[in-house]
Fold these 4 entries.
Entry 1:
Amino acid sequence: MADLQALREEAESAIASASSAGELEELRVRYLGRKSLLTQTLRGIGELPAEERGPVGKTANAVRVALEELLGRRTEELEAGELDAKLAQDRIDVTLPGHPPSPAGHLHLVTHTRREMEDIFIGLGFNVVEGPEVEFDHYNFTTLNIPPNHPARALQDTFYLSPDVVLRTHTSPMQTRSMEIQPPPIYIVVPGRVYRRDSDASHTPMFHQLEGLAVDEDITLADLRGILLEFARAMFGAEREVRLRSGYFPFTEPSVEVDISCFNCGGSGYLRDGSRDSLCKGSGWIEILGSGMVDPNVYGFVSDMGYDAERVSGFAFGMGIDRIAMLKYGVPDLRMMFENDMRFLEQF
C-alpha cells in the first residue's frame, strides 16, 4: 500500500512538470503501461492473501483512475498551449498581397471551334441536336440511300459492334432520326464524334463532324450557297467567297463540293514573296465540306411525317470540325489535337 501511494505521488509530480505531449506519452507508458508497477500490481492481486486483495485492489484502481484523469487534463492543457503557439507562429498577415491565382483552364481547341460553329448556325436559324455514337446500320447507311452492297459503304464500313450495329461514320443518321419525329420545316445542325478507319496527318480514326439539314418548301441550291457563304465569312473573315463544284454523295442529288477563297494568300494562289501558297496549293481555293440537295430516296423513309418530295425540298451538308480548326488556327497535323501535349494546347 505504501508503494502504491509513493508511486502515485511520484507520477503526479512527473505529470505536472511535463512540458510536451510527447513527454506525457512517455509518462503514460511508464506508469500505466503493460510493464508498469501499477499494472503488475493489479495483475498480481490474485496471488495476495485473501484479506489483502480487497484493499490493495481498491487502492491500485484508485491510483490508476487518478493518474488517467490527471494525464487527460494535462494533455489537453499542453495541446491547447502548443496550438496557441503554432497559431501565433503561423499567423497570416491578411494585409499582404495574395499569391497570384493559378491559371484557369480553358476549352480544348476542338470544343471551342465546335461551339463557335454552333453559334453561327444558331444565328442563321438552325437548331442544334445530338444523336447516339453507337448507331444502327439502318440509320447510318440504309436510310441515307446507301443500301447493302452499295460501293459507298466500302469507304466507311468500319467499327462494327454486331452485324447491324456500328460506331457511326458520320452524324448524318440524325437526318432521318430527326425527320421521323418532326414534320417539315426542319433546320438542324448535328455536331459530334464519328469513327472511320483513316489515320494520317489530316485524318484520325475518331474525329468530329458537323452535319446540317434544312427541309422546307421551295428550298434551292442557291439557299445552300447563301447559308454556306454566311458561315464561311463568319468563321474565316468577311472577305471570303465560296465556290461550288460538282461532286457525289449517296444521300444528295445534285451533290456539290464547297471551297472557300484562301485566307492565307487572299485567293491569288501566291504569297507576298511570290512563292506558291502551300495551303491552297496555288489554286486560291480551299475545300472545306461536301453538300447537296437531299435525295428524294431519303424522303421515302420519312414520308409518313409529311416529307413528300413533290412538295418539299432541302439541302444537307457536312464538314469536319477538326479540319475547320486546323485551317483557322494553322495546325499542321490533325493528330496534335489528340496527343494532350500541353505545349500545343496552351497556345489556344
Entry 2:
Amino acid sequence: MAELAAVYLITGTDRPKVTRALRRLRDRVGEDATELLSALEASAEDVEAACNALGLFAVERRLVVVEHVERWKAAEVKRLEEYLKRPAPTTVLALTGEEIKRDSTLAKAVAKAGKLLLYDVPKRGRKADLPRWVEAQLAERGVKIDTEAARAVVELVGENTDELATEVDKLATWAAGERLTERSGDAPRDVFLRVTGLLVAHVGRVRDCRDLSAQGVPPAAAAERMKRNRFYVQKLYEQAGNFTDHELDDAVVRLARLDAALKGGSTLPGELEFTRALVDITRGRDAAKTAS
C-alpha cells in the first residue's frame, strides 16, 4: 500500500468520487485518529495547531480533515503555505472544498507538499456527458447499462451527482449483475418506479428548502447553493410552507418503502403499491383539512 502524503486537496464537481476518496483516507487512518474541522469556523492557524498537536502525542499517523477550504482568504492560504513547508511528520492533512481550480494558489501549495485529487464530471455539454458518468459508476459496481437507459436515469433524477450516485446504488442492487436496459423488467412497474424516483428527489429538495428557510437563508441564496433555477427554488420554498416537518419526514419514509416494494420487496402489482403509498402520504393532510 502506498505511503500517505502529508497533505491532500480533494475537490471537483464529481462529489461522489470526492466523498469516496475522503472515505478511503479515513478508513486507512481510522476514525479514532481523525479530527474534522471546517474552514467556516477554523483558521489556517487553528488547522496548523491541530496538526502539530496530534503530531506531538501520536506515534501512529493521524488525519485532520478540513472542509469548505474554498472560503479561506489569501491570508489563510499564505499561513497554510508556511505550515506545508514543514508539516507535522505524523499527521495527514486533507483539505476539501468546491470549485477549487488546479492553478489556484491553494492547489499549487498542496501540489508542492502532497497530492491533488481533482474529480470533475466532464464539462463538455455537461448534461450530455452525465449518462456516460452513470455508465462508468455502474460499471464500477459490475453492472452494464444501455446508453438510452443511462440517459433516462439522468432525465429522471437531474444533474446533481450526489442524487445520481444514490440512484446508481439502488439500480446496482436491483440489477444484481444483470444488464440494465431502458425497458428492462416489468414495464408498468418500471413506470411507477421512475415516478417514485422523481417524487423522492422532489420531496428531498422541499425538505432541504425547509431546513434552509429555518436557518434564515432566502430563496435566492438557496438557489445558488443548490445550483438550481431561482424560480424553481422559490416554488420549493412555497411548497415547504404547506407541509409540517412531520408530514415531510413521513413522506420520505413512505416513499422509501414504496421504492423497496417496487424493486422486488413486494409481490403486489406496482399500481397497487403506488396507490397505497399516495393514500398514506396524503391521508394526514386530508384528515387535518376535514377536522378544520
Entry 3:
Amino acid sequence: MTITAPTPRASRASPDPMRRTSRAAGVLYLLTFVSIPTLALYGPVRDNADFVLGAGSDTGVLVAALSEVVVALAGIGTAVVLYPVAKRQSETAALGFVTTRVLEAGLIIVGVVSVLTLVTLRNDVAGTAGADPASLVTTGHTQLATYDWAFLLSQSLLPVFNALFLGYVLYRSGLVPRLLPTLGLIGAPLLLASDLAIFFGVYDRAAPIAIVAALPIAVWEFSLGVYLVTKGFRPAAVAALTATDRRTEPSPA
C-alpha cells in the first residue's frame, strides 16, 4: 500500500498593507461627512435668540457637537494614515497635509466648545437667582459668532489647503484616477475665493453661491473616500512608488 504524504494547505495570501491603508483612509474620509445634519441640529441655537434662557431642546445640539468631534478626529486620522504613502511622493506636501488637518481639527474643537458653553449657560446659569437675561443673550450671541468664525476657518478654509497638498500628491503619483485630485485642485481656488468673500462680508456663508463654491471640494473628498474603500490604490502606481523607493535607498557600505 502506498502512503501518500498529506498535501500542505495552501497558505493564505498575506494582506496587502497598501490595501489596508487605502481602506482605512477611505472609511475615515467618509466619516468626516457625519456632520452633514449639523446645520439642522444646531437650529434651536441659531433660530432662538433666547436659547440660553431655556427655550428649545439641547439634545440635537449635543448630537451635532459630538458629530463635529468625530469629524475632527477622523480628519486627523486621514492625515496619519495617508502620511506614509504621501511622503513617498513628496514629504513637504505630506507634512503640509498633516499640519492643515491638525489645525482644522483644533479649530473645529474651538467651535464645539463655544456651542457647548451655550448649553452649560442654559442648564447651569440661566435658572439661577440673579441671572441677568440680557447679559446671557449677549453672551450667547458672542459664542455663536465664535462658532461661525471657527467654522469658516476650519471646515471651509483649511480644506482648501488639504485639497492642494493631498491633490498634488495623488495627481503626481497616480494612486487614484487623476479625475479625483483634479476636482480638488480645481475646487480649492473656488472655495478660497468664496471664503475670502465671506470673510470680507460680501455674502453670508449660507448664501447659495457659497454652497455652490464648496461643492467641488465636497465631491472630491466624498469620491476619494468611496474610491479608496471600494478600489484602493492603483497597483501600477503602487509598483512605481516601490521601484522609486528602491532606487533611492542608500547602497550598502
Entry 4:
Amino acid sequence: MELKGKTAVVTGSARGIGREIALHLAKAGANLVISDVNEDAGLQVIEEIKRLGQKAIWVKADVSKSEESEKLIQTALSTYDRIDILVNNAGITRDNLMMRMSEAEWQSVINVNLTGTYNCIRAATKSFMKQKSGRIINIASVVGQMGNPGQANYAASKAGVIGLTKAVAKEFAARNINVNAVAPGFIQTAMTDNLPDKARETLISFIPLGRLGQPEDVAKAVLFLSTEASAYMTGQVINVDGGMVM
C-alpha cells in the first residue's frame, strides 16, 4: 500500500488518531498537510514527518468556519499543486445528558464534526473533479450507528457524517473519486487514559475482542482506503471497533 508522490490533507492531526493517521500516510510515502487548532502540537507532527523523509506543511484552521476550510485547501493546492487524499478527522465532544444539554454544546459539536466535514469536502470538490481522481475518508464513530447516553450531539454529528459520506460517494463516483468512512469504537487516547479502572473495565466488557483499540488500528484502515488496494470501494463505512457493532 504505497502513496509515493501523493498529497494528503488531514484535519485534526495534531494529536491522537489524527496524528497517527498522518504518520501512517507519511510512512507510505505521502506528503502531508497537517491542520488543527493546536499549533504547538501540530508543529511537532510536522517535525516527525520530516524525519521520515517526507514533506509536510502546517495550516492552522478551524474547519467549522468555511473561510478557514477554504484557506486550508487552497494552501495545500498552492504548495503541492494537487490533493490526492482528504481525511476529515477534526472532531470535538461536549457531552451532557439531553435534558441538560445547552444549545451551545449541541451546536459546537455539529459545527465542527459535521459542518466541518462538509466545509472541507466542498472546498476540495473542484480540484478533485478536475483531476478525476481522489480519496476522501471521513472519520465517523460507532456512536453514530448505535447512539450513546450523554452524547446526543456527538451521535447526531457522526450519523450525519455517515449519511454525508454515502451521498457524496454517489455524486463523485462517475469522476473516479472514492468517498468512504471509518467508524472507530473505543480507542485508547489521552481521554481514556484518565478513566477510573472500573469505568475502563466496563467499556472493555462491551468489546468482543476484549481490549481498547489503538490509534494505529484506525490509521491502518485509513491507509487502506487511501490506496489502490481499495479502488473498488466507495460509500462504505468500515468499523474499527473490536466487534462492538456487528
